[in-house]
Amino acid sequence: xxxxxxxxxxxxxxxxxxxxxxxxxxxxxxxxxxxxxxxxxxxxxxxxxxxxxxxxxxxxxxxxxxxxxxxxxxxxxxxxxxxxxxxxxxxxxxxxxxxxxxxxxxxxxxxxxxxxxxxxxxxxxxxxxxxxxxxxxxxxxxxxxxxxxxxxxxxxxxxxxxxxxxxxxxxxxxxxxxxxxxxxxxxxxxxxxxxxxxxxxxxxxxxxxxxxxxxxxxxxxxxxxxxxxxxxxxxxxxxxxxxxxxxxxxxxxxxxx
Length: 257
Description:
- It is built from 11 helices and 10 strands.
- Helix 3 links the parallel strand 3 and strand 4 (91-92).
- The protein folds into 2 domains: 3-93 and 205-254, 3-Layer(aba) Sandwich (Rossmann fold), CATH 3.40.50.1860; 95-203, Rossmann fold (3-Layer(aba) Sandwich).
- The two termini are 26 Å apart.
- Helix 2 (45-62) crosses helix 3 (73-86), helix 4 (95-105) crosses helix 6 (124-132) and helix 4 (95-105) crosses helix 10 (204-215).
- With 257 residues, it is an alpha/beta fold.
- Helix content is 44%, strand content 18%.
- Strands 4-3-1-2-9-10 form a 6-stranded parallel β-sheet, sandwiched between helices. It has a 4-stranded parallel β-sheet with strand order 6-5-7-8.
């Protein structure tokens, strides 16, 4: 049976994990949340890259995964190309899949991207959009406080709703498509939709589908087994991840690399 590795800076990547589970019900999956170092989006690019390689080395050399899904936009921009060169297994990220879906969804070519400061600084979405269509208008908004609040367990209150509203107010009114440019953000998508009436794109679905195109379907002999590893607070991760996945997680192992 194959094993697929999925990693993120914390709990946000479970939005991608959820789609990977749907597409690969007969493969083992290992999830690593580097929550000790979250959020990646507030760190320098070289530091993010080094953290990504530590996690991916763990997945490849210790857990011997057959493919890696980088379930983090910031990590995708900082490390995907290096990881593809470093390992002899398929590596997929979330950015190009979000871009493709955004182009399909927009009706007026005005697309918004909300993301971490590091993702915006790297201009990874802008570069990817420009590769495919230079006639698009791309508006990027940094949302530095989202990840920390989600990692702690998002509370739907006046303060959090005001924060969403303030971030989205930085987008022009003619934006008809919004890319969730951080895998943590789908965990609060229903709150974001209170203040954005256009199409909201979660790259997770397309990312899982793109991996399936590359490695095909698993052997249908038995159901998959999922293991969870985190570098930070395992109990808080478990609480937030269970709520989003809608299922019980038996064990989350704390592992500092």
